[in-house]
Amino acid sequence: MLLAKTLTSSTFKLALIAIGTFGLIVSAIFAYVYWSTASYVRTRSDRAIMAEQAGLREAYVRSGRDGLVELIRHRITDESFAGHVYALAGPTSALLAGNLRQWPAGAADRGWTEFRAPVPSLAPAEPLVRGVIETFANGDRLLVGRDIGDLDSFTAQIRAAAVAVIILIFVLAAVASIGVTRRTVGRIESINATSRALMLSGLDQRIPLRGTHDEWDRVAENLNQMLDRIETLMGEVKQASDNVAHDLRTPLTRMRGRLEKAYHAPRSSESDAALIGDTIADLDSVLRMFASITRISEIETRARKDAFRTVNLVEIAGEVVELYDAAAEQDSTRLALSGEGEVRVTGDRDLLFDAIANLVDNAIKHGRAGGRVTVTCHSGEGGAVISVADDGPGIPAEQHDRVFKRFYRLEQSRYTPGNGLGLSLVAAVARLHGARIELRDNAPGLLFRLCFPVPVG
Predict the structure, then answer these.
(1) For the CA atoms of the chain, what is the radius of gyration?
(2) Is residue 158 part of a domain?
(3) Can you name the residues that pair with 440 across neighbouring β-strands?
(4) Alpha carbon 426 to chain centroid distance?
(5) What is the rounded CA–CA span in Å between residue 254 and residue 278?
(6) CATH number of 20's domain
């Protein structure tokens, strides 16, 4: 099964194309090496033949036919000229001197020739002879050549070696490509199998790692992290759905109870007005919850960046403090603004106002009764910072990452007014503005910091 997928995979087809291209290049290289080597060796042999021919021609010119015959006989008996072939024939092709038994059949009167003929000094073999023929004025013909059997054998060995190397390269490349493709297809099949298991059984499956720390392991790790994130998000969606159902159940149950009670009770304008007012208040609470969800979604889609301007953070914080001053006085909480007179950031003024307002509102609600809430603005090398500090019970360190989830509350009874969306909105605004959120222990209480980046340009 895996072998069939390997042979039909696109990776294997690409590997075959690469092998073919590489094989053609290697074949061309070896063909050039063979041709250049054989040509070089043959050229050297031809030069030696031509030099010998020139020497014999000079002897013929100087001493005539008899002098040339004597010189050829001397060459034949000289061991230093072993492998040379000589033949001097008259106009009738009768041999006058040389180490050939007869004049080569079919040889031209001049120029280069190759032939096989018995040579007594090279018996019993009939070597391949390459020589050059020259015809003198009186009709005598001189053949000077050399046994090129060794050259022929040498070039044949080069040719055989080149063919063997090319075949070996193709075989090794094919084996390597099948191995690599099989490994690649195996890893892809592992991912596919995990994907099918995920579709059938849920998000609890993960792609197995082989511990090789190669690119496939890195892909598997990234996919596993993505699955972890999806599983976390799905859990958060379920938790949010449960929390929405819980938060809606209370006001809807109250509204139904009031309406049912009013339905069975005698009509009274005063009680009807109270019923209508309480019902409207509960409906407003539900609508505020959905408005907050919609607002957070809008912020997270980054659809509000067109409204970014350079704004004064201190001015916005001052407006928030002024708005919540009365609410703080009702709880005997001292609300104060401190820091620099002007801190500039680039952002959406309305969203920043909402974020700071949620932080101040949480600090007043969850801080110590009769305590103190301080809003501080300042700028530094790292950018602008706004902090909201209270002296209440604070938030446990292990809960710092959870409080930004939608509908999350520290107290599980969920009887405290609110819908658990305030800090989710703050986190969405911070992400939109590229700000960093820091939660610190205020000893006692909580110090919440929004750290904005340095404005560009």
Answers:
(1) 50
(2) no
(3) 447
(4) 35
(5) 9
(6) 3.30.450
Task: Please count the structural domains in the chain.
Answer: 3
Same domain membership, residue 49 and residue 30: yes
User: What is the distance between the alpha carbons of residues 258 and 275, in angstroms, rounded to a whole number?
Assistant: 7
On whether residue 193 sits in a domain, the answer given is: no
Residue 293 token pair: 């969800």
Q: How far apart are CA 132 and CA 107, in angstroms?
A: 10
Does the residue 164 lie in any domain? no
Is there a single domain that holds both residue 117 and residue 87? yes
Question: In the 8-state DSSP scheme, what is residue 382?
Answer: T
pLDDT tens profile 146-177: 888 777 777 778 778 878 888 888 788 778 77
Answer for the pair 383, 434: CB distance below 8 angstroms, yes or no.
no
The CATH number of residue 245's host domain is 1.10.287.130
In this structure, the number of other CB atoms found within 10 A of the CB of residue 86 comes to 23
Tokens matching residue 34? 């063979």
Neighbours of 46 (CB within 10 A): 16
CA dist 396 and 94 (Å) reads 121
Whether 17 and 87 map to the same domain: the answer is yes
Domain of 225, in residue numbers: 215-299
Segments of 399-445 assigned E as strands? 436-441
d(CA 408, CA 420): 5
Nearest CA to 451 out of 423, 430, 426, 424 is that of 430
Q: What percent of the chain has pLDDT over 70?
A: 82
- Has residue 294 been placed in a domain? yes
Of 64-68, 131-135, 274-278, the least confident = 274-278
Burial class (CB in 10 A: 0-12, 13-18, 19+), 91: exposed
Six-digit token pair at 351? 């969203």
CB 45 within 8 A of CB 146: yes
CB 2 within 8 A of CB 182: yes
289: pLDDT confidence band, cut at 50, 70 and 90? low
Please indicate, yes or no, whether residues 339 and 437 belong to a single structural domain of this protein: yes
Q: Distance between CA atoms of 15 and 20, rounded to whole angstroms?
A: 9
Both 370 and 274 in one domain: the answer is: no
pTM: 0.47
Cα–Cα distance for residue pair 278/256, rounded to 1 Å: 11
According to DSSP, the residues that pair with 376 across neighbouring strands are 338, 387
Model pLDDT, residue 414: 45
From 153, 183, 203, give the residue that closes a domain.
Answer: 153
Instruction: Supply 239's token pair.
Output: 């938790």
For the cut 60, the answer to whether the pLDDT of residue 322 exceeds it is: yes
CA atoms of 354 and 54, how far apart (whole Å): 108
Shared-domain flag, residues 447 and 345: yes
Q: Do 154 and 128 contact (CB within 8 A), yes or no?
A: no
